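Onboarding guide, step 5: your first structure request.
Type a short instruction followed by the sequence, for example:

Predict the 3D structure of this protein.
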Amino acid sequence: MMIPKWRYVASALGILTAVHLLLSITHPTYSSYTSPAFMRGAGSLEYVQKHDSNVGTLVVPPSSVPRNHTDPNRRKANAVFVILARNSDLWEIAPSIKQNEDRFNWWANYDYVFLNEEPFDDAFKEHTQRLTNSKCHYGLIEHDHWVQPDWIDEEKATAAREVSVSSFLRGQGRN
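The system replies with structure tokens like these:
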């Protein structure tokens, strides 16, 4: 029995469309890069870093969630996001902040509080402020409060961390 060629073409287009829709729903960056506005150039990457090369390049795609979908009646807690980070952690925390903004904070607009043991540099401040429409606050923690105290037994602490990680990986750390 011979299957007409158009059925192969229709099946391939159906699978391609299904994969495209699935990626559009689950990955905001895929959705923003394949949107008609981005294809026309209207949604081109607005945020490109303009600092020296030893810091790196931060490219922030446009948000996949429209900013005008806030509900004024939606309840919001009095809260902030507190992030303990060093200046060198910028490129590791940037994707998390962007994902948080795309998934949640686009409507809640909670402020961010960044804490460090040394003053944040201008590049860190500039890039974290570009990632969110919320206010960003920067603070210092005393060095003694940032590091592990001398009186803690390092071998015991390491063993306890390993037990904690292994129990979490086995699924015992979930509620």
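Each response can be followed by summary notes, for example: The CA atoms of residues 4 and 55 lie 57 Å apart.
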